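step=encode ok
step=design start
structure_in=
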């Protein structure tokens, strides 16, 4: 295991708790990822110490979830979540327990966790505590609910989305009894906040086997109970048919653009405004940021252009984000290299370097790069209608991109003087 340094840094916290007479262990996803030799992110700790006792031992702390026994401790420039061993009662809203009871038994605490691969604990000496055969499931690449899967999903319905997300992220199979329970309890998702669903769905998109995650998402009918997507099952199926599972998706915003591109293609490519409006409605329903919406629309625009045009022109490259261009072209190129016939049929041969080289040939990349500005036009021409200034700048911008005139102040003013009749309202 080459990724244990995060546990080494946090080990003094467990030693402090042990020396004070309390049990303490590393728990959860960090232990799982250590055993899988994956990057470690947040290291969490579970302990028999009550919250007040943790607070006394670690004066530098934040009470982020005191009612549920969680204290965020600041130690050596890092923050660590320390939670008291606990059990939970019934869940009226399929998310939060009606009552949390602190216990002194690690097994009781681990029993409330979602999947066996996440119900592992470890001490600083890397001794694993495994009550539910999580290590065997890791070895077998299986996602299995702890105990009765129906109970686990009724406690927190989001665990069903986590299950299909882990299938994508880890490239694991879901155990048959767990998969049946997801299908039978899928309707619980209607009670789960869309923001929580979005987090899991976005992680699913960028997993190492996103095809597998989407297959489970459709097979269990989870799609029917998440906002906005119930009518799009055929689009997901189409997307799976049109893409290779050998090519990962670079980010979640591109994933949604790819999804809406397939919706646009299925609809006969007739109404660009309609598909753009669908993106806006979807991002609003899923409470995404304005930036996410903007990025999805930009990626979608590039995909639609590439599917309709034989090759890029300077004018069509102008104003686009080069990183987004390279990302889309890279995905198309990878799909074609993987032998995906649909991408070969729909898109002409993609070469990322060719697009990058062509983009670099642009004389300007935005209006800010133009060698003159509105003040120059006022000073040299002083048009009667000041609204014409913007039209003049736009006219010159197009001329420079088309390489009809060089981007030089004197040349631009001369070009404007000789072509004034092509600009309205001057």
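sequence_out=
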């Amino acid at each position: 295991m080459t990724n244990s340094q995060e546990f080494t840094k946090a080990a003094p916290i467990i030693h402090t708790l042990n020396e004070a007479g309390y049990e303490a262990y590393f728990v959860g996803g960090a232990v799982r990822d250590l055993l899988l030799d994956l990057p470690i992110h947040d290291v969490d700790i579970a302990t028999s110490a009550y919250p007040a006792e943790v607070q006394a031992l670690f004066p530098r702390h934040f009470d982020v979830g005191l009612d549920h026994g969680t204290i965020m401790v600041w130690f050596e420039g890092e923050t660590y979540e320390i939670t008291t061993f606990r059990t939970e009662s019934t869940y009226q809203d399929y998310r939060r327990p009606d009552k949390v009871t602190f216990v002194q038994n690690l097994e009781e605490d681990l029993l409330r966790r979602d999947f066996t691969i996440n119900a592992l604990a470890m001490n600083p000496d890397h001794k694993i505590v495994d009550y539910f055969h999580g290590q065997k499931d890791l070895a077998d690449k299986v996602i299995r609910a702890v105990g009765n899967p129906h109970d686990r999903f009724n406690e927190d319905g989001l665990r069903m989305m986590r299950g299909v997300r882990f299938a994508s992220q880890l490239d694991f199979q879901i155990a048959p009894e767990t998969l049946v329970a997801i299908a039978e309890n899928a309707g619980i998702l209607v009670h789960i906040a869309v923001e929580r669903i979005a987090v899991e769905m976005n992680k699913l998109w960028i997993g190492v086997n996103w095809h597998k995650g989407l297959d489970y998402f459709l097979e269990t009918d989870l799609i029917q109970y998440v906002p906005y997507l119930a009518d799009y099952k055929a689009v997901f199926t189409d997307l799976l048919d049109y893409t290779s599972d050998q090519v990962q998706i670079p980010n979640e915003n591109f994933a949604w653009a790819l999804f809406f591109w397939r919706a646009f293609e299925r609809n006969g490519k007739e109404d660009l405004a309609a598909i753009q409006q669908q993106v806006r409605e979807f991002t609003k329903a899923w409470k995404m940021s304005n930036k996410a919406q903007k990025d999805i629309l930009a990626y979608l625009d590039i995909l639609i252009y590439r599917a309709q045009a034989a090759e890029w022109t300077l004018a069509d490259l102008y104003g686009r984000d080069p990183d987004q261009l390279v990302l889309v072209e890279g995905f198309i190129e990878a799909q074609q290299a993987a032998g995906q016939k649909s991408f070969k049929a729909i898109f002409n041969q993609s070469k990322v370097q060719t697009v990058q080289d062509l983009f670099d040939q642009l004389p300007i990349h935005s209006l800010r790069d133009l060698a003159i500005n509105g003040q120059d036009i006022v000073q040299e021409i002083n048009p009667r209608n000041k609204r014409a200034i913007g039209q003049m700048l736009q006219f010159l911008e197009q001329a420079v991109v088309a390489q009809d005139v060089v981007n030089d102040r004197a040349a631009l003013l001369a070009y404007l003087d000789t072509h004034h009749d092509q600009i309205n309202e001057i």
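step=design ok
step=annotate ok -> The first strand starts at residue 24 and ends at 27.
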